[in-house]
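Reviewer comment 2.1 asked that we show a complete input and output for one of the modelled complexes. We chose the NAP case, as it is the one discussed in the main text.
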Amino acid sequence: MGYKVAVVGATGNVGREMLAILAEREFPADEVVALASRRSQGVDVSFGDKTLKCKTLEHYDFSDIDICLMSAGSPVSKEWSPKIAAAGAVVIDNSSCWRYDSDVPLIVPEVNADAVAGFRKKGIIANPNCSTAQLVVALKPLHDKARITRVVVATYQSVSGAGKEAMDELFAQTKSVFTLEEMENKKFPKRIAFNLIPHIDVFMEDGYTKEEWKMVAETKKILDPKIKLTATCVRVPVFISHSEAVNVEFEHPITADEARDILRNAPGCLVIDKREPGGYATPYECAGEDATYVSRIREDATVENGLSMWVVSDNLRKGAALNAIQIAECLIKRKMIQAKRKAA
Ligand SMILES: NC(=O)c1ccc[n+]([C@@H]2O[C@H](COP(=O)([O-])OP(=O)(O)OC[C@H]3O[C@@H](n4cnc5c(N)ncnc54)[C@H](OP(=O)(O)O)[C@@H]3O)[C@@H](O)[C@H]2O)c1
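Response of the prediction step:
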C-alpha cells in the first residue's frame, strides 16, 4: 500500500508542477488529492495522464492523508498547516510561513537532509525560497572543500516566482507593447515587459527587501550560520527559471578548475562551462529541468580566495515543487513515515 498525498494549491504554478513531478517520478502514492480554494471547486488539473477534480481545502477531512504538499501562500499555511499536522499528516510547506521557526526544519535534501528528523516537533517541514534553494545546492560542495566566508549574489528572478497572475501580466504587457494598447501594472509595481524591477517582496527598515533578507536567513539556517551573505534581488521578464550572479569568498584557497570538478560530481548540480559563445546555461534552457546549472566559474583576483559563477535553475521545480517532493522521498527512504492505511 502506498501513501495518500494531498496537494494544496493544486491550481497554482507550484501545485501544478507538484502534480506533474509526482507522476513523472512515480511517487509511491495510492491516491493523490488536489485541493485549492472555493473558487476552484470542480476544476480539472492534470496528474500524469489522468485528470483530478479539485476539492475545497476548507471542507476536506485530512484524517487519512499521509503527506500534504502545501503551496497556497503564507496566510493559508499559517491557518491550515497546524490543523493538517494535528490530523497526522506530514506537511511540506512552500510558503515562507514556517521557514524561520526553530521547531521546523528547512530542508534542501542535497544540503541538509539529516535535519529532516526535526519534523516531529510540529509535523511541518519548510521548503526554502526559490532563490535560496538553487544557491545552496551550488554552494554546499564548495563550502565543504574550502569554507565559505562571504557571498555576494545578484538574482535575476523569473515572473513565475510571483505566481500564475504574474506570468499572465508579463504575457499581457508584452502583447500590449506590440498592439500599442494601454498596459496595467497589477502584480508588479512597475511595468515588467522589456524591463527589470529591483524589488521583490516588501521593503525592510534597513533598505533591503524581504526577498533579500530571506536569502540571508535561509542560507544561514540550511548551510552555515557563519556565512555572511548580501543579496540584490531583481525581477526580470523571463517566464521560468531564476538566474544568479554569485561571488564567493573562501577561508582556504580554491581554483576555478577545482570548483568545476567538485561541482561536476555534486548532487543536483550540472556544470555547463565552456569559455565560448553559448557555453553556459540560460534560464530558457533550464525550464522544465531538475538540475541546478552552474556556468562561468572563474577566479576573482580582487580578493584572496574568491570565485565568481553563474547559477540557473527552474524555480518551480528545484525552487519549489521538486524540492518538496524530494523531501517527501527522503522521509520515505529514511522510514520516517508510514502510510496510515498500511499501519491500520
Ligand atoms: N513560484 C515559485 O517559484 C515559488 C517558489 C517557492 C515557493 N513558492 C511559494 O509557493 C506558494 C504558491 O506559489 P504559486 O507560485 O504556485 O502561486 P499561485 O500560482 O498564485 O497559486 C496559488 C495557489 O494557492 C491556492 N489558494 C489561494 N488561496 C487559497 C485558499 N484560501 N485555500 C486554498 N487554496 C488557496 C490557489 O487556488 P485558487 O486557484 O483556487 O485560487 C492556487 O492553487 C507561495 O507561498 C509561494 O511563495 C513559490
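The mean pLDDT is 97. We note this here for comparison with the apo prediction described in Section 3.2.
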